[in-house]
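Quick entry between incubations.
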Amino acid sequence: MPEKILVIDDDEATVQLLSILLERHGYEVIKAYRADEGLRKAYRSQPNLVLLDVMMPDMDGWEVCRRLRELSDVPIIFLSARGEVRDVVKGLEMGADDYIIKPYDNDELVARVRAHLRRSPGPTVSEELVFDGGQFRINFLNREVRVKSRLVHLTPKEFSLLGVLVRNAGRVITRAELVREAWGPEYADAIDSLKLYIHYLRQKIETNPQRPEYILTSRGVGYRFAGH
Amino acid sequence: MPEKILVIDDDEATVQLLSILLERHGYEVIKAYRADEGLRKAYRSQPNLVLLDVMMPDMDGWEVCRRLRELSDVPIIFLSARGEVRDVVKGLEMGADDYIIKPYDNDELVARVRAHLRRSPGPTVSEELVFDGGQFRINFLNREVRVKSRLVHLTPKEFSLLGVLVRNAGRVITRAELVREAWGPEYADAIDSLKLYIHYLRQKIETNPQRPEYILTSRGVGYRFAGH
DNA sequence: CAGGTTTGAAACAATTCCTGACAAAAGTGC
DNA sequence: GCACTTTTGTCAGGAATTGTTTCAAACCTG
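Done. Structure below.
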């Protein structure tokens, strides 16, 4: 079966051109014209690679990239008309694998797609969409968290932070790393906020926030999610 | 242990600049000024990534890339002043992972290096993460220490010091070295505190702190952790 | 503009760290 | 073995750091 490439871009013409190009090279193309549609299709069709536009009306590409990374390790290539170095760096730091500036050359694009697919371990895409720690469940696709089967409402930042902790369950993550993962590389100084959000999360998911059983402090280093 | 990057380029100035840049970001740089030298050093030092110039007097970069690929799957990034699409495509088709055109931006180069290193498997960390000495177990991932299966709480400094001792189990480490490793190079005068912390640790992990069985004194030199 | 969300600053609480003094033990020469 | 010196171990309390909580202002977003 051919390798599947998901193209997410609000510009229909671009999607069309990319489809033709990629299909000519033997790939199967899945098309999405909006960010949320892209995420849903990523989940459903398990693509081997994602081509992602940076600017879209409903949600920017950065956010899509972040959420995709929560779901899987699929290779992500940004496509953007904005070619400033800071954007490229931002995209790569955010977990993307490459950043191609429009207008791109068809051959180069295909070559880069191929290079990344070559590395990619195969259709081992989305692994655990749900973390189940007995009393505690988190579903990364619909962003639901349940404690003792009670649904807990989390804000975006709260969910993002909790996600980083859960995906690294069992190991201590430094504050700096947590901030980098949950806020993005450009918020190195958000450590104050981090403490707050740890507090919020504990209020929401811990039975007794004073004696946390999930989100544990590692003094002088960071936090870790108990590996049940 | 820092990740190793092999830089192969016949232009000494370029190599020098790259070294400074990469070392500032915490990488260890191995330098090679000729193609054959580069291949030899790749073989000997097992780099985690290779930065490769396309044009060199003795053998061109393409050939180096091909031969490297015969030896290993190490990520390869081409660096070249020739930015024509056909060269980029050729490089990527040849097995390289990325192609950066000179003059490059420092931040972008580092970001791309990071992106590729993130993908690469990493030098089998798993065994190093837990030390199991029968009655004594230390888990560097979640920073837990257990003696006779009892969980022992350690402060950051205590853990750091114990970590150095355990990682060098069986070997005597000088006081100066211990301080340097556990406190950092700038605290050369913390030798006074060292004996304090040795004391704390013994109180916490030894059955009989007066007759230590784990943390042993080597009079006039330093301490060592019993190797079991 | 009203709601929830995010941020910064600061008070408060707890722990971790260091200082200096002294006690104990190990090595040394007689 | 006995004094002496050197090195290592122990102790206590206060300084410094780190973590938690509260409060209020800024910020979106619909």
